[in-house]
Amino acid sequence: MIYLRSFQLSDSQISNPHIYPYNVFRDKDIEPFVFSPITVFYGNNGSGKSTLLNIIANKLSMRGQENATSNLYGTKNYYDAFCFECSYCLGEDELGHKIKCLPVNSRYIKSEDILYEVKKIQQKQVLSDGMLYDYVKKGMTKEEARQYLESKEGSRQMEYIMFAQEKYSNGETSMQYFDDFLQPDALYLLDEPEVSLSPANQVTLAKEINNMARWFQCQFIIATHSPFMLGTLDAKIYNLDSKEYAIMKWSDLENVRYFYNFFKEHEKEFE
Is this model's pTM higher than 0.90 or not? Predict the structure, then answer.
């Protein structure tokens, strides 16, 4: 399904070369991005892939959008001005009718959102462990303390924290996060979804994204430089490191070639 057909970045030029976000895309030969069911923005650190996703989210007023700060020069908000100057075209439904708005489940999921969820789980675990320690110090056995924390009274003292549920690793928490938020019939902008995931889980997530795009009427626009995601996703890949934002094969990308050359140099160690 194609909910967002294309997106055109502003081509306006301003005199100050350092003003964000104009400086991110300055001197780039930018044609409109034309999207597939899965589209990837690839680039190294500082390439602007996260900025690009956030601009799209702002222009489309998507859940999860984040307004830029530190972008005021005088009285003009340059970030909002840049977003206003961008344009987009929505896709068509299965009957060929122009889509008038995005599905309500559509959202922009940032790497910070995932890390926040991981941190929240960790903080709950710290509180639970701390209360367990305090009750043992007061004379309870560990088993008695655990039973108390799992009782109604103990649960009230811990507010919404349930000790038995807070044993996920960072990666497991991330996978659970995607299970909870990725629903059928929606457009998703994902910023570095590989955060906290092992290579095996990165591949698992990429396969799930492929399935959701193929069978569950989802569209994905993903910012990543993970070779495991790049090599598994059935995606159109824009290379944001190139001047013209070229469409490339995953195996030709610099970051992927770096991994390939690294393992080739150490090939004998695997024999």
Answer: no
